[in-house]
Specification:
alpha/beta; two-stranded antiparallel ribbon; 7 strands
Length: about 170
Amino acid sequence: MTPPRAASAGPSLVEDHHVHSTFSDDAVSTPEENLAAAVERGLRVIRMVDHVRASTTDVPQRLAALRALPRVEGLTVLTGVEAKILDVSGAVDAPADVLAAAGSPRGVDRVLLADHQLPGPAGPWSPRRTREAMELGLAADDVLAMLVDGTVAALRRVPHAQLAHPLSLLP
């Protein structure tokens, strides 16, 4: 058993498990540029993760591009996809074949679960939809319960899951 890290040591800054590339529409760096930045910063682990939807078809090509990156001694390159939690049952917006292959040699290492919208009873709620429901009497505790229940259900449902940015909707 590894002894716990001393409280004064602070968080480890040699691993980054959530790095997007130009495979995502909100990123500007290529996988090659991310690899170079990881080396420059002295990282030991980098997980390259990009957004998917159920309709995404290019995950095998993305993985091939990541696997073709040059090996760097002392740096482990891991893979992942980021998928939205859709509802309180834990359904996620990712291709079924990607979820099934997660953790296998032909799949991504991790599926990052994101709460970009509120997991509603029958699908995602935008912030506007959520505010409207609250104005009509939905309690803040019920909104929080939907978020937590959807997140927990997705963690139970999706193999090799990791939270992308937990509870990011709360603000």
